[in-house]
Structures are given as structure tokens and as C-alpha cells.
Amino acid sequence: MMLLYGVTDRAWVGEQTLYEQVKSALKGGLTCLQLREKQLNDSAFLTEATQLKELCKQYGVPFIVNDNVEIAVKCGADGVHVGQQDMLAQDVRKRVGEEMILGVSAQTVEQAIEAEEAGADYLGVGAVFSSTTKLDAADVSYETLQAICSAVTIPVVAIGGINRTNLLKLSGSGVDGAALVSAIFSSADIEQECKCLRSLSERMVTPCE
Fold first, then answer.
1. Position 109 pLDDT exceeds 60
2. Three-state SS for 7?
3. Structural domain tally of the chain?
4. SS (HEC) of 156-168
5. Can you give the pTM of this predicted structure?
6. What are the residue numbers of the active site?
7. Residue 127: is the preceding peptide bond cis (ω within 30°)?
8. What are phi and psi of 81, to 5 degrees?
């Protein structure tokens, strides 16, 4: 699920709608999709989330909603992802029940352990490289990323400034995959880019012999 984790960004909508962009990414080998929306009102957000959930279902790919627990529940999403400044992980778990996937952002070993104990199913750790998507994201060193992966038993996905030129630098860290935003959705050929990124991710998580 974590191998090639796409996070949407409306900034790159143009020649294609967001729906078309996501479909291209799924065709290219995306293994998980997170819908991140900060501008839409709840009605439009719910409509979009419901449409993308059904699209992801066609490809057998988990659909995660960022931050908005109520929208995740209403659209029947596979999961919800929350940050350190959002709703507490244990409160989210109580709200969504045991069946829904819960992802939590973490920047330190302490946050990672707390999130796992609170019921998180996976962690999003970053920014592992400088990111233009989230300017307020705290930097996470390779050593910290490695320490977090060693400290928890749940999957860890690295995020923040990852693209085809630096993805393999995460090799050996213990991560289960990479989450990408602009590297996917700013591409002129999203499907082909995802094929390339999927191949790199598979190499990145393969243990050295």
C-alpha cells in the first residue's frame, strides 16, 4: 500500500481535471491515494471524495482523506490521515472505528511511538527533503527516519520533496514507500511518471543482499 503513495494537489489542475490526473496515476501504478483539499467547501469536497473513492476502488487502491474525518466517514473512505496539529490520533480512532485505516504524520521517534500506541496503522514521516508543497514542514534527517522505522512495527512512508532524482537516497532507511505530490501531479505525463516512480520505489525498498 505504501510503495507509491500519491497526495493530490489542486495547484497542478489545468489541462486535466483532478479526476483525470488521479486516473492517470492509478494507471501508472499508484498504490495508495490521499485526497488533500484545503479550499473546497464541505459539499464539493464530499462530492469529489466520493467520486475518487469509487475510482480508486476500480483499481483496488486504498483511498485516504487528509485531515477531514467527517468527510472520510461520509464518503466511506478506506482511511483518514491526520497531522500533529490536527485531531488527536486516539480521538480519530474512536470516531472512525477499527476498520478504517488511520495514518498519522510524525517527525520524531517520540511522535511515531505515540501514534502507534494511539492506534495508527501507518506513519507519514517528513519532510525528508526540502518541499515546495508544504513550506512549514519540519525537516527529518535520514538518521531520524531510520530511527523511526526501527522504533515502530507499523509501515512508514517518507514524504517531502521526493522525486525521481532523490528517491533512491532513501534506500536502507527501512521505509515502506514514498509519498509524492508535485513529482506526480505536476508531470506532463502522469501515467508514465508513475511507472518510473513505481519502479524506483520497488528498488528503494528492496533489501541489499
1. yes
2. strand
3. 1
4. EEEECCCCCCCHH
5. 0.95
6. 36, 105, 134
7. yes
8. -120, 130
